[in-house]
């Protein structure tokens, strides 16, 4: 049983030329950058900023965003080299298959399903909350049974997923145009927040910038960061350790730049444009995150920040209700693009896995008119609708963080492996200081993973164990790499 059989880079590229499974190349560096901004600026900037400032880091939440941005930057270097060398759909899954073998690739693909599908559903539920709040503000409240935290069926969340699924089926270029309009809207709103908020900043709110470490109910028992449990540190919030614990949480805000790599196969000049899209979107979003977090904690004392809608509530606290309405509209636009690009990333990862036979290969057929994996997109849309409509997530969102960090670890290791096994491959972008920077990326990601709660680790282990059962029960026997190339 050879579970570490690899798929050559050349074979991966040849698979993209199969007419039945060939995606259309329509994207440019601008499209990719906008996709990256579209998925990164969302829940993190509109929700997490206030939550982690109030509960974990205080005004130093800005430093938490910097830490998370640096970790993502290290991983981004590795993604950029891979995506420019192997411009094939699937992102970390495809990279792992070419370097570490089929079973590690399956594990990372299964992990990406957790990251992207769960994140899309979580964000859709957040979108529903903002939508219901906006309707209520104009005198059109939705019944509690179909919207809100206690809803029996979260109808708005299901509807937005259905609409965006239809957009993705209709074609990648249409998706990029819709995304562009929404991204321009939400970036404009974010800039309004920064500029307008500066007029209401009070220097006293920045003191203490790093609040004294305290033990709170939020970090007790299985909710304590694993790092603090392993090393016998009394679990605390705030302080220097709080900055890193907060970084592990606000990391959710950066999730998505790796989705840019999943669109490499649909990019006109991937060797040049994918690295530009990755670094451009990550740099722009990091600057905006740090600026917004500094403004918000300056406007309102961190102990009084809202954990549900911190940006709009901060403006309400200074008597600027009209700006709160504009921020709500920006949040709707922002969360819409996040769901759109997460669904796009999920379809491209499963498309690559399906093309390899690890999930039913018939799902990978491309629609003759739209040039998209329409069947697969519809299946993912229906599953995400069900999750968003009927499942209450709560703290399960932290599973998305651990899944993404695990993917970053695998990609960073893969860069070093591929440099050794295939030094002959043309690389239009190369990670500098190999193996030092990839090793730093691995260590940084592992450290943030260790700062996630124990209960998150337990759920992650259960999910991965289920994935192992699926691999040996179905995927190993149907893999094209193992000789099942004609099975459908």
Can you tell me about this structure?
This protein has 488 residues and is an all-alpha fold. The chain is built from 18 helices and no strands. Helix 2 packs across helix 14, helix 6 packs across helix 7 and helix 6 packs across helix 15.
Would you summarize the structure shown here?
By secondary structure, this protein is an all-alpha fold. The chain has helices at residues 9-15, 29-40, 43-57, 61-85, 92-99, 102-137, 155-170, 172-198, 226-230, 239-250, 259-262, 270-299, 310-317, 321-355, 374-390, 397-421, 436-450, 454-478. It is globular and about 60 Å long.
Strand content: under 5%
Q: What is the 3D shape?
A: globular
- The span between the termini is 22 Å
Figure out the total of helices.
Answer: 18
Main pleated sheet: none
Secondary structure layout:
Layout lengths: L8 H7 L13 H12 L2 H15 L3 H25 L6 H8 L2 H36 L17 H16 L1 H27 L27 H5 L8 H12 L8 H4 L7 H30 L10 H8 L3 H35 L18 H17 L6 H25 L14 H15 L3 H25 L10
């Amino acid at each position: 049983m050879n579970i570490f059989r690899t798929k050559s880079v050349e074979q991966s590229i040849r698979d993209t030329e199969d007419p039945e499974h060939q995606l259309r190349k329509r994207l440019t560096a601008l499209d990719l950058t906008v996709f990256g901004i579209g998925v990164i600026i969302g829940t993190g900037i509109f929700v997490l900023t206030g939550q982690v400032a109030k509960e974990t880091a205080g005004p130093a939440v800005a430093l938490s965003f910097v830490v998370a941005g640096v970790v993502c930057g290290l991983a981004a270097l590795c993604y950029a080299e891979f995506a420019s060398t192997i411009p094939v759909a699937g992102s970390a899954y495809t990279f792992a298959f070419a370097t570490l073998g089929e079973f590690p690739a399956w594990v990372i693909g299964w992990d990406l399903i957790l990251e992207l599908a769960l994140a899309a559903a979580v964000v859709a539920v957040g979108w529903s909350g903002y939508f219901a709040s906006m309707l209520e503000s104009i005198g059109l409240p939705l019944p509690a049974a179909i919207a809100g935290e206690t809803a029996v069926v979260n109808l708005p969340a299901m509807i937005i997923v259905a609409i965006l699924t239809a957009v993705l089926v209709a074609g990648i270029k249409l998706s990029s145009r819709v995304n562009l309009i929404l991204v321009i809207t939400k970036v404009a709103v974010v800039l309004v927040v920064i500029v307008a908020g500066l007029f209401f900043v009070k220097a006293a709110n920045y003191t203490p910038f790093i609040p004294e470490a305290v033990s709170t109910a939020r970090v007790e028992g299985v909710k304590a960061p694993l790092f603090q449990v392993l090393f016998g540190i009394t679990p605390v919030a705030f302080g220097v350790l709080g900055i890193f614990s907060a970084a592990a949480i606000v990391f959710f805000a950066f999730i998505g730049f790796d989705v840019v790599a999943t669109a490499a196969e649909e990019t006109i000049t991937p060797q040049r444009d994918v690295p530009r899209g990755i670094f451009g979107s990550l740099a722009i979003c990091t600057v905006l995150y740090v600026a917004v977090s500094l403004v918000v904690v300056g406007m309102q004392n961190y102990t009084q920040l809202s954990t549900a809608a911190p940006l709009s509530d901060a403006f309400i606290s200074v008597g600027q209700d009209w700006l709160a309405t504009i921020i709500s509209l920006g949040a709707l636009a922002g969360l819409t693009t996040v769901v759109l690009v997460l669904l796009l990333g999920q379809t491209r990862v499963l498309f690559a896995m399906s093309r390899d036979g690890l999930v039913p290969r018939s799902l990978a057929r491309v629609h003759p008119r739209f040039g998209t994996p329409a069947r697969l997109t519809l299946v993912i849309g229906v599953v995400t609708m069900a999750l968003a409509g009927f499942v209450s997530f709560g703290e399960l969102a932290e599973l998305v963080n651990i899944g993404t960090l695990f993917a970053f670890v695998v990609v960073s290791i893969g860069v070093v492996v591929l440099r050794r096994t295939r030094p002959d491959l043309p690389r239009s972008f190369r990670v500098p200081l190999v193996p030092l920077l990839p090793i730093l990326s691995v260590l940084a990601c592992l450290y943030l993973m260790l700062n996630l709660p124990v209960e998150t680790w337990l759920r992650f282990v259960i999910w991965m164990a289920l994935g192992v059962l699926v691999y040996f029960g179905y995927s190993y026997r149907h893999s094209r790499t193992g000789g099942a190339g004609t099975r459908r």
